[in-house]
Structure of Glutathione S-transferase family protein:
Amino acid sequence: MSEHYQSQGSTGLILYGIPKSRTYRCIWAAEEAGLPYTVEPVSYGAESKTPAFRAINPNGKIPAMRDGALVLFESLAITLHIARRAGPPLMPEGDDAARVLQWTLWVATEVEHHIIRWAANTFYRPPAERVPEEAAAASATVLTALSVLEGHLAGRDWVVGDGFSIADLNIASVLYPSYAQGFGLGSLSVTEAWLRRCLARPAAVRTLALREG
């Protein structure tokens, strides 16, 4: 069983999972929001398949969240909920709220599957099961998608509006695990500078210390 993590004064928000998983996205969001939270350790495999946990997430996967009467699964849905609770600037208002959803869905559909495919064929799978051609193809697909972000970030510091928002967190949190393992951004210097700004935020530093600890 993994270690139990709790923010100072934690009372309400419960995150189910472990930091070395997509749960870290939710922890980062809670840290940015300044909301008290507890991480109830549930690991991959048997722990997430029990009847008790399936009552929380019938998919039998981590993370999941309980916030009072509200129970959610899917990490990006959880981060969006946390940001909505926090309000601006983490969750912008008006048209920018729609732009947050746009970029969150973009990273989930255009980037995440392919960067996981790169990771699987670079460091997740045992060496004998890795296919270098798959890694190369996945990398090319990710870089093509990220060229859209590169163009969007030209002349701006953050993805939506004038400040860091949950859109930045959601995209950065998809990229980080592979970036930390050597995924190269090539000529996408604007994107890399933006990613480094995201990861240097105090809430990110605290979260990554848990994830990598």
Remarks:
- The chain has two domains: 13-86, 94-201.
- The first strand starts at residue 5 and ends at 6.
- The longest helix spans residues 95-124.
